[in-house]
Amino acid sequence: MGIFKRKKRVENADSYHVITDIKMPFMPFGNSITNSDVVRICIDRVASQCAKLKGRHIKIGVDGVQTEKTGSIAFLLKYRPNQLMTPYQFLYKTISLLLLNDNAFIYPKYDKATYKLTAIYPLNPIMVEPIEDDVGSYFLKLYFGDGSNFILPYENIIHLKRFYSTNDFFGGTSSNEAHDALLKTLRINDSLLQGIESGMLSSFQIKGLLKINGMLKETDKQKQLEEFNRALERSAKGKSAIIPMDSKSDYTQLNIDPKFIDEQTLEFIQSKILDYFGVSKSIFSNQYDETQFNAFYESTIEPIAIQLSEAFSNGLLSINELERGEEIVFFSERLQYASWTTKVGAIEKLMGLGIMSLNESRAILGLEPIENGNKRLQSLNYVDASKANQYQIGGNENEENNK
To answer: What are residue 66's phi and psi, to 5 degrees?
Structure first.
């Protein structure tokens, strides 16, 4: 009985192998909003415009006249906030941290001997804890990435907040970044983009059925498949559309029709991200006109400028200085970004009222200052309101005398 060996079982006559590309798994987006290029561009659009604001230490007199103060505060705001940053870089980083974390903390550094302000630094803690002592004074304990932590009086910190509502101390929902609503939209947007990428790649791959005719063992079928793959590689390297095959195999192409997300859906998801940062589509793409920029400024930049002015005034000035009419204001040179027609019209009106000097007018037009250009010109078509009646009566009397 042991003389005859049993034959190995073979498959049916026709065998099939499905040739497919390697599937691309969807990668998780993560918990950081900076993983999105759309978020980074939005933050850049807002921060770059806010960085153009000019911080000034001024005093408003009893007559309402503003005069610019001199001193350490004025110097730091105007020229060098600290040894590492220019005023533009300082504001850019501060606003970027505000948009990322819904909070921005700025530390004023004073000289221990003279109590003179020497620098102002934007801080980037990983966690902030509020503390209240027995007498009702507030402190902030700041934890940093290197493991260090510091406790600072809250009144010594310049604190900017965004989405300030539910928490008394912090903007958003906590001292750390918490963008649950935004992250949900970002994950959807990222999944849509990955789906488009996967669909495009799958449409470029060869997919089909390889029919192997005959009674073949499993090893023989594998050899046939490997031979077919080598034929594909030789065809691709030779830039040929012809694949040589023998009579044992038949190849049938599978038509792949990947479904892509429509443009309206993608724009809707992206618009939700833009709206979160107060950035319109025209601002996002840097293709805006004067009206669109003014809307962006008034809805997004101006509220930040007001908060900067109030926070810096309370953080850097004493109560006596505030009572004397001193404050820190972040001005915007909005006319720099207006159209030529708007600039000329504004100059005509402002110069006629004596508000603007020749050099200020030339600066708006992008021209260099001239000698004696700080003079203010005023049209004789305007008269003091308190003397308007007298001017009119005097004019009538002169007319009667002339008659």
So the answer is: -95, 130
